[in-house]
Amino acid sequence: SSVDELQARISVCRACARLVRWREDVARSGRRASFADQPYWGRPGPSFGDPDAPALLVGLAPAANGTNRTGRMFTGDSSGDFLWAALHRTGFAAQPTSVAAGDGQALTGLRIVAAVRCAPPENKPTPTERATCSAWLQRDLELAAPRLRSILCLGAIGWDATLAAARALGWDVPRPKPRFGHGVEVALGRPDGRTVRLVGCYHVSPHNTFTGRLTPAMLDEVLLGLRA
Ligand code: SF4
Question: What is the ipTM of this complex?
Answer without folding.
Answer: 0.99
